[in-house]
Design a protein that fits this description.
Helix 2 packs parallel to helix 6 (about 130-145) and helix 3 (about 55-65) runs parallel beside helix 5 (about 85-90). The radius of gyration is 14 Å and the shape is globular. The chain has a five-stranded parallel β-sheet with strand order 2-1-3-4-5, sandwiched between helices. It has a single domain, classed as Dehydroquinase, class II (Rossmann fold), CATH 3.40.50. The chain contains six helices and five strands. It has about 150 residues and is an alpha/beta fold.
Amino acid sequence: MSVVLLLNGPNLGILGRREPEIYGTDTLADIEAAVAEEVSVRGWEVVSVQHDSEGELVSAVHRHSDTTVGAIVNPGALMIAGWSLRDALASYAPPWIEVHLSNVWAREQFRHESVIAPLASGVVVGLGSFGYRLAAQALMHLDGEAPRTG
């Protein structure tokens, strides 16, 4: 069974009630279900990790580096200065997609640069929780296999 790592950083565990005017009303559980639905056409499963601590996210990347076909990563504010997460992702061989719910370039200046994005296979920003579905589709495209049925 192939597995996708869904990695979410600080403050993403409170989606649905955290500034819904910016981040929407979908919860992290809603997003996990949507990603699982997308990748199910390949027979893939999702392992979801959310943590407010960068060290725990680094550990998750290392722990899942040999057991996953790819990852969807929303580093949250760690995109700005999450150097240890960046280094962990640099050693993560499968493709991975960086996702942000809001359009970070339409927000405060300090959000305009990601130390992580240059390593990603792709980046999806500003499309709300739908961006996670697009990231899942991108991983399947990068995998290059035809969808499995049944």
